Every structure is written in structure tokens, then in C-alpha cells.
């Protein structure tokens, strides 16, 4: 709890820098307008104007907050201009993809741990694939699936699944291997078979590793779903809001979509973290 | 049909060979540890080629590897131009600036425990956010050329690098710092001779994470607008024209560049942190 004051100070500092940057970056437009109108500007005029422009280069926090309020609370959820509606589109793709990716990742990890041939063939590629900018194939997946008639939720979910897949594989393999030789020997003296030592030793001791990679995975899933909305000119979802905002110069709209995505990411990571704390506590793993 | 059968036979043989090698006594030998994954990769390519040709999959859905390779050899100048635009100008410049800035900030805030306690949670929080979303904003600010891509990369790599460096600077233990104090070493001497070297494993962890982020940032930022060159630009326009072999060629280049970049940083790490337990085995 003692870190609350420093954190608040830093956040306040960031907001102050934000306002300062907005004044500096938006003043060009204000000066141009004033010059055209032939008006002499005082410093206070510039400050007031830069903080309330319609299409500023950098919208200030209160403008973004107002836009967020307008598009979440005041609009109906079913409206095309509601951020909750767009957020839900993105969230559903994220969650579906995350479920597919984690499920497949855990299965592959179990296979890798129990089969030496699979370990030797797949593991180097799984590790190497983390250094590859996988996100670059997102547009191709969307268009190819589109040309075979699959649209909407599924292509985005596949990108999300793909992004969350590899972190889960690598983390889970590490976790399933984490019991040390002494523990494995103990189970052998009990005459436990492979299945028993998996359910009673390997799986429980892999939980901390699993949750760590789940946190990485769900953040990656969200990024995948957002990027998946960019290339096809999608009209729904947070990524689509950003894209249309950047086409029409609606900076406030981009920023509010960005903040919404950030809040969504924080919520998702927070929920996974909460499940992690509860699970590990019940398993007696927290200090 | 012969293609399909050939692919299946090759897959069965390779599978058999890999299982045999993995379960034999040679499985810990260096050649086996290299041969098995390589054979696995080759098998995927052969099966891909065989299935695509055997089933007559149209190349607008999935081109065979041979067509992709032909495209790569044909369009080396284009690929090179895109590589320079995206990787050298966009990703690499942004990477150096972002990591350098994060490192400098970490060393500066290291003197103030107050700032550390405040910045670490905020930095961790921001590092988990979809920062890639700032790409449209930065493209608006810095224009379509590589400057905006470098800016996206700076923003993307800054926080992971900052968090790792700050953690690393705290890595030396009290005993070692006390020893420096008994030598009456100044702050800067302690920093240069003890704490920075001790921080290197963490710093390189941040640098390695950032290599992938840098390439992703530079490519995705090009989806929001770019001059008529660059890997992200080529991918998005060729996808629109259904020139999928060119898209795959770009992806191959991106994959090789990403792995090589990561490998380079890992090699430097090996040289710098030779003393660390994880490097000695």
C-alpha cells in the first residue's frame, strides 16, 4: 500500500505532461486560425483554445474522458456508436481465440513433455517462433479465410489463438517439467503410473507457470483481435474505430478507442491475475 | 495424386526416423538435436507442397513453398528495398532510440526510490497494454515515412525495457553493495563496477523482448499508411491483389530478419554475461 502515493504522483505527472504537450502541439492550428482572422492572441487564449479543439493533434484527457462517457454511458449498447458495442465485438473474438489458443497450447505442451520425439522436433520451432513477427500474417489470414467464405468472428479469433498459443506452450512445458527429480522419484516409489504422476504432481506444479503465460497470452490475444480488424476495413470493433478515426482525422475517437482497449486489456489481465491468486492460494502455493 | 502419396510417404518416413533418433542413445548428441527439428521443418514444407499440389489448392489461398521461393529469388530488389525501409530505418532506429532512452531513464530514476515505486507499477501496467494502438496516432503526427514507424517502435519497446532495467539495477544484493561501501566507492563507481554488470542479464532480457516488439511495431504501423515501400505496406497491398506468394515471401524475410536480430542480441548477451549461471552450462 505504501506505493500508492508514488504511483498517484507518477500518474499525475503523466497527465500534467499530457496537458503541456497538448498545448504545445495544438497551438500551431490556433495560431493559423488567429492569423487568418487577423486576431492578436494572448497566452491565455492559446491555452483555452488548444484544450478544446474539435480535431486536435493531441486531445487532452478531459476531452477523451468526455468522449468515453458519451460513447459508453449515454449511447445505447446496441448503437453503432457505442464503444461498449465495439468493445464487445473485439472482446468476443479475443476470448474465443484465447480459449482455442490456450487449449491447443496446453495439449501440445502435454504431448511435448510425454513424447521425446515431439519434444525434439517441435520445441525448437516453438521457441524460434516467438522471435518472428507473427502479427504480419494477420491480413493474409483474414483475406484468405474471407475468400473461402469464413467471415466475422472466426478469422480474428484464429489470429488471437495463434498469438496466445506459443507463450502458453513454452510456459506450460516449463511448468510441467518443474517438479524436481526428488519429487518424481517419490511418486515412482509409490508405484504411480504416468497418468497419476501427471494429474497429481506435474499438473499442479505447473500452475504458477501456466498463469504467468496466460497473462501474456490474453494480452497478446487482445492485440491480435485488434490488429485483425485493421486490414479488411472492418466496420465493427475497437480496431475498426481506430482505423476509421485515422481515416477521418477524428483524433478524439482514436484516443477513446485506445483508452477503451487499454481498459479492456487491464481488466482481462486483472481477471486472470485474480483467478491466479485464488487458485494458488487454495493450492497453498502463495507465500 | 502422386504428389499426395509422396507427401504422405515422406511424412511417415520422417516421423519414423525422428522417433527412432529421439528414442535412441544418440538423442543428446549435437547432430541429433539439430537434425530432428530440421527434419521436422523440412517435412512440414514437403507435406505443404505435396498437399497443395496434390489437392490443387488455388494459389490465392495457399501457394506452395516452391512458388514462394521462386517469388523470393525473383524479387530480391523489392524485398531488399522493403527490408531497408521497414527494418533498418523503422525498426532498428526505433529500437536503438527506445532502448537507449529507457536505459537512461532507468539509471536516472534509480537514484530515487520514490520514483521507482511509482514508475514500476505504471510501467508494468503500460507494458501489458495494446500499445500497437498508438500506431494511427503516431502516423498522423510524424507522417507516412519511416519516422512514424520508428516512433511506434520507441513507444513499444520503452516500457518493457524500462521495467527490466530497473529490476536489474536492484539485482545486486546488499552484501555486495556493502562491500563497495567498505571500499568507500562513490555512487558512480558502484554503479559502473557492480550494479550495471549485475543488471546485464535483466537488461538483455529486455533487449531480447524488444527485438520482436520492434519488428511487429514497424510492420503493423505500415498498415496505417506508408510510402510505397516497406514490408507492412507490401503485405497489405499484395493481400488486396491476392498476390499471396509475395506476401509469403515478405513473411519469410520478416521471420528470418526477426530470428537473426534476436540471435544477434542473444550472441552479444552471451559475450557480456558469460559469468551468469544460465550461460555457463
TrEMBL record, chain A:
It is a multi-pass membrane protein. InterPro entries: MetI-like, MetI-like_sf. One of its GO terms (biological process) is transmembrane transport. SUPFAM superfamilies: MetI-like. It is found in: Cell membrane. The keyword Oxidoreductase does not apply. The chain crosses the membrane at residues 7-25, 88-113, 125-145, 209-232, 252-275. Pfam families: BPD_transp_1. Keywords: Cell membrane, Membrane, Transmembrane, Transmembrane helix, Transport. Residues 83-276 form the ABC transmembrane type-1 domain. One of its GO terms (cellular component) is plasma membrane. PANTHER family: ABC TRANSPORTER PERMEASE PROTEIN HI_0355-RELATED, ALKANE SULFONATE ABC TRANSPORTER-RELATED, MEMBRANE SUBUNIT. Belongs to the binding-protein-dependent transport system permease family. This is Putative aliphatic sulfonates transport permease protein SsuC. The gene is ssuC_3.
Automatic annotation (TrEMBL), chain B:
The chain crosses the membrane at residues 31-48, 92-110, 122-144, 150-171, 202-226, 246-268. GO terms for biological process: transmembrane transport. It holds the Pfam family BPD_transp_1. This is Putative aliphatic sulfonates transport permease protein SsuC. CDD domains: TM_PBP2. It is found in: Cell membrane. Signal peptide: none annotated. GO terms for cellular component: plasma membrane. It is a multi-pass membrane protein. Keywords: Cell membrane, Membrane, Transmembrane, Transmembrane helix, Transport. Its main location: membrane. It comes from Actibacterium lipolyticum. It comes from the Bacteria. Residues 100-272 form the ABC transmembrane type-1 domain.
Amino acid at each position: 500500500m505504501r506505493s500508492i502515493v508514488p504511483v498517484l504522483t507518477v500518474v499525475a505527472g503523466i497527465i500534467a505532461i499530457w496537458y503541456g504537450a497538448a498545448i504545445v502541439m495544438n497551438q500551431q492550428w490556433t495560431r493559423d486560425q488567429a492569423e487568418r482572422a487577423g486576431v492578436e492572441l494572448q497566452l491565455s487564449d492559446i491555452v483555452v483554445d488548444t484544450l478544446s479543439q474539435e480535431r486536435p493533434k493531441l486531445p487532452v484527457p478531459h476531452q477523451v474522458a468526455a468522449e468515453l462517457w458519451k460513447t459508453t454511458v449515454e449511447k445505447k449498447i446496441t448503437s453503432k456508436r457505442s464503444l461498449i458495442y465495439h468493445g464487445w465485438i473485439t472482446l468476443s473474438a479475443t476470448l474465443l481465440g484465447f480459449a482455442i489458443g490456450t487449449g491447443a497450447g496446453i495439449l501440445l505442451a502435454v504431448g511435448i513433455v510425454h513424447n521425446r520425439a515431439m519434444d525434439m522436433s517441435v520445441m525448437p520451432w516453438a521457441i524460434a517462433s516467438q522471435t518472428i513477427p507473427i502479427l504480419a500474417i494477420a491480413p493474409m489470414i483474414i483475406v484468405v479465410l474471407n475468400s473461402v467464405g469464413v467471415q466475422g468472428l472466426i478469422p480474428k479469433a484464429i489470429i488471437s489463438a495463434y498469438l496466445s498459443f506459443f507463450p502458453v506452450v513454452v510456459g506450460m512445458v516449463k511448468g510441467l517439467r518443474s517438479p524436481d527429480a526428488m519429487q518424481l522419484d517419490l511418486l515412482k516409489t509409490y508405484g504411480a503410473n504416468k497418468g497419476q504422476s501427471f494429474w497429481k504432481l506435474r499438473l499442479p506444479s505447473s500452475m504458477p507457470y501456466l498463469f504467468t503465460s496466460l497473462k501474456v497470452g490474453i494480452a497478446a490475444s487482445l492485440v491480435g483481435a485488434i490488429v485483425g480488424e485493421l486490414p479488411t476495413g472492418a466496420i465493427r470493433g475497437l480496431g475498426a474505430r481506430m482505423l476509421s478515426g485515422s481515416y477521418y482525422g477524428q483524433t478524439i475517437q482514436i484516443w477513446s478507442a485506445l483508452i477503451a482497449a487499454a481498459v479492456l486489456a487491464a481488466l482481462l489481465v486483472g481477471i486472470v491475475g485474480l483467478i491466479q491468486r485464488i487458485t494458488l492460494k487454495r493450492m497453498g502455493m502463495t507465500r | 495424386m502422386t504428389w499426395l502419396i509422396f507427401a504422405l510417404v515422406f511424412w511417415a518416413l520422417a516421423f519414423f526416423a525422428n522417433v527412432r533418433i529421439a528414442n535412441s542413445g544418440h538423442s543428446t548428441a549435437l547432430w541429433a538435436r539439430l537434425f530432428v527439428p530440421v527434419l521436422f521443418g523440412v517435412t512440414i514444407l514437403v507435406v505443404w507442397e505435396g498437399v497443395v499440389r496434390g489437392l490443387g489448392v488455388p494459389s490465392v489461398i495457399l501457394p506452395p513453398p516452391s512458388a514462394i521461393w521462386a517469388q523470393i529469388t525473383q524479387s530480391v530488389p523489392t524485398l531488399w528495398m522493403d527490408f531497408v525501409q521497414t527494418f533498418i530505418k523503422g525498426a532498428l532506429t526505433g529500437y536503438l532510440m527506445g532502448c537507449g532512452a529507457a536505459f537512461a531513464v532507468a539509471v536516472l530514476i534509480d537514484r530515487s526510490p520514490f520514483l521507482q515505486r511509482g514508475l514500476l507499477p505504471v510501467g508494468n501496467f503500460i507494458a501489458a497494454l495494446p500499445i500497437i494502438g498508438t500506431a494511427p496516432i503516431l502516423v498522423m503526427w510524424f507522417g507516412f515515412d519511416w519516422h512514424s514507424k520508428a516512433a511506434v517502435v520507441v513507444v513499444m519497446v520503452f516500457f518493457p525495457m524500462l521495467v527490466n532495467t530497473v529490476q536489474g539495477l536492484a539485482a545486486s544484493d546488499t552484501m555486495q553493495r556493502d562491500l563497495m561501501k567498505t571500499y568507500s566507492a562513490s555512487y558512480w563507481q558502484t554503479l559502473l563496477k557492480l550494479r550495471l554488470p549485475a543488471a546485464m542479464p535483466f537488461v538483455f532480457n529486455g533487449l531480447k523482448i524488444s527485438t520482436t516488439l520492434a519488428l511487429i511495431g514497424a510492420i503493423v504501423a505500415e498498415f496505417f499508411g506508408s510510402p510505397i515501400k516497406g514490408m507492412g505496406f507490401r503485405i497489405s497491398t499484395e493481400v488486396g491483389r491476392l498476390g499471396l506468394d509475395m506476401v509469403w515471401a515478405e513473411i519469410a524475410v520478416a521471420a528470418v530478419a526477426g530470428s537473426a536480430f534476436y540471435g544477434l542480441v542473444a550472441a552479444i548477451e552471451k559475450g557480456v554475461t558469460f559469468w551468469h549461471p544460465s550461460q555457463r552450462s
